[in-house]
Amino acid sequence: MAISKYLVEFIGTFFLVFTVGMTVIDPGGAGIMAPLAIGAVLMVMVYAGGHVSGAHYNPAVTLAVFLRGKCPMADVVPYVVAQCVAAAAAGSLVLYLKQGEQVTAMAPAMIPALIAEFLFALALCYVVLNTATARATAGNSNYGLAIGFTVLVGAYSVGSISGGAFNPAVAVGLCVLGLVKWADVWIHLTGDFAGAVVAALAFKSFVKDQG
User: Is it the case that residue 211 has pLDDT exceeding 70?
Assistant: First the structure.
């Protein structure tokens, strides 16, 4: 049933954003280990939900998979709605559990943040397309690890520049958490969706036996 796919997208995105908030915001934050927890939760949720929904948990990934031809048009909007609602719900729960802890929003420099979000959204979508949708890698058992580690690497590499979302739903969650200003969320949306489009174009250009 279609509803099961949307619920899986909600659950996976919820735990991703919940982990982001709980490990990044003090008290109880994980410090320099936060990216490891974030990459790990994405990995396990991809393994848990991949066989049901494709485990996108990311509107940019949904766009890339749609452009690649593996996500029906009818699922695109429900997936994105489920992902963004889950992100907002997770962010709200984190704020409740953190008991109103004061958070200072980052002020990213526009061009560096755009570049950072674009590059790692591109990398993430490209990895998803090649490990989870290509005929040559069908049935592999490493796709979840590859996807989770892409986010882990991105968070360590450019998290200080853009906030390390690489995911419009996570960007919504960061705004709910107060880690990013709503006025700056366009940076993440633009960079992430642009990365998704380029990843899909690259996949369709480079991979001949797409399946």
Answer: no
Q: What is the CATH number of the domain that holds 62?
A: 1.20.1080.10
Q: What number of helices (H) and strands (E) belong to the chain?
A: 8, 0
The residue range of the domain holding 178 is: 2-206
Identify whether 98 is part of a domain.
yes
Query: What is the predicted pLDDT for the residue at 1?
Result: 64
Please give the average per-residue pLDDT across 57-68, as a whole number.
98
In a domain, residue 211? The reply is no
Confidence at residue 118, expressed as pLDDT on a 0 to 100 scale: 98
Which burial class, exposed, middle or buried, applies to 161 when counting CB atoms under 10 A from its CB (0-12, 13-18, 19+)?
Answer: middle
First and final C-alpha spacing in the chain: 24
Q: What is the pLDDT at residue 11?
A: 98
3-state secondary structure of 28: coil
Domain count, the chain: 1
Give the separation between CA 178 and CA 24, rounded to whole angstroms. Answer: 12
Q: 99 burial class (0-12, 13-18, 19+ CB within 10 angstroms)?
A: exposed
Q: Is 24 part of any domain?
A: yes
Q: pTM value?
A: 0.97
Q: Specify the residue for token string 């990843």.
A: 199
Condensed to tens digits (0 to 9), the pLDDT of residues 45-61 reads: 999 999 999 999 999 99
Residue 8, number of CB atoms within 10 A of its CB: 23
In a domain, 63, yes or no: yes
